[in-house]
Amino acid sequence: MTNNNHSTIWDNCLSYIKENINDRKFKTWFEPIKPIKLEDDILTIQVPNKFFYEWLEEHYIGLLRTCILKELGKKGRLEYLILIDNKNQFSGSNEAENKVLESKDIKNPFVIPGIKKVKIDSNLNAKYTFDKFIEGDSNRLARSAGKAIAKAPGATAFNPLFVYGGVGIGKTHLAHAIGNEIKAQFPSNNVLYITTDRFTNQIINAIKKNTIDDLIGYYQHVDTLILDDVQFLAGRAKTQEILFNLFNRLHQNGKQIILTSDRAPIDLEKMEDRLISRFKWGLSADIQAPRYETRMAIVQDKLEEELDQIPEEVLEYVCHNVVNNIRELEGVMISLIAQSTLNLKDIDVSLAREIINKYVVSSNKEVALEKIKKLVADHFKVSVEKMQSSTRKREVVIARQLSMYLAKHFTNKSLKSIGDDFGGKDHSTVIYSLRAVKDMMDTDEGFKNQVNEIERKVQMSIGSGY
Predict the structure, then answer these.
(1) Looking at domain 369-463, which of 1.10.1750.10, 3.40.50.2300, 3.30.300.180, 3.40.30.10 is its CATH number?
(2) How far apart are CA 431 and CA 218, in angstroms?
(3) pTM above 0.85, yes or no
(4) Residues of the chain with CATH 1.10.1750.10
(5) In which element (H, E) is residue 45 found?
(6) What are the residue ranges of CATH 1.10.8.60 in the chain?
(7) Is the pLDDT of residue 71 over 80?
């Protein structure tokens, strides 16, 4: 048989089928079918969606077998295709081209009916892996659950896995890492990562085009669904309704669902109770701001090749100062290297402070001035009382000036307020002290190292709770 005969063969099949079922069933289940090709006694037909195919196999398999054998003989076979535009069907693009996905080679589809699994672009970022996701107390539960899921997607108690936490602390990285590991372990597993905004836009476009059934059919081919930032479902009633139904279908079929959010399920606003209930079915795992040791490990891993350019005290300073956001932490380190390379600046604590003050939204606790005084006094082995007195002894003067310098950088106090805290000094005295310390740091390497050491201690007092 040649490919030119496929329409004629199918027309003959339709004539036989029409004689054996009523008009309503014929129009519903057979008129939408299109013949695609005929090769080696195999007739390939295109059906609108997977549900359509399953209905034919369940209710009309005998009728189909009879007409195919009648037209093609004992070697005649039937194969199915589903028309899906994997990338653009739900994007709203007018330039999208439909693609026919070929069916699986089946020796006898009347005995073992089936179609080829649709291959879906996962949208995963290959750079986000478990190897690059540094484990710490702040993320250990979520990471461990993710590793377990990757070994047996859909078959653990962690379905769904609901990962929540603040901005920039690794939720998206972990979600991608799970997806990438699943793809590595199970290449045939269809993993799909999608943001909530894009998912919503797909639904909006499907409603406009009256293709919701096709959209649901598309998602039924997904084995692991990763939906990022579900908090943005708030107030989107139709999207929530469709996600609820899709969630149920995927979960019932043993598919893995992974969700991320900036807050726990119980704290989600303008969300249907029945959907929140589904979010709680598996494991809810929070990721918190990483502790100092984890932040140091993250920086060392990210900048492994550049570490020899960055002094240890600078690493410590940055990791003590940027505490709540890994993206900001990485950004500061990249900026340090860029400033050093492009502007020929030395990478030191002063440069790190300049970058942090300029680009990082600080959420650190303000250190008390009394804490600064105590740290400086202990370092120079003088009393806080002497620093606040009018004595002109060199070691006391230097300790006083340095305390004012640190107070300016680590507190929100005005120059006048700082002066008042040191025995009623006026603001011009404070300005002189700031300049004196800066000049000594520029000319005396030993003094600069002392200042850096005290600054680290101040930072540790700020960041000790993280």
Answers:
(1) 1.10.1750.10
(2) 68
(3) no
(4) 369-463
(5) strand 42-47
(6) 292-359
(7) yes
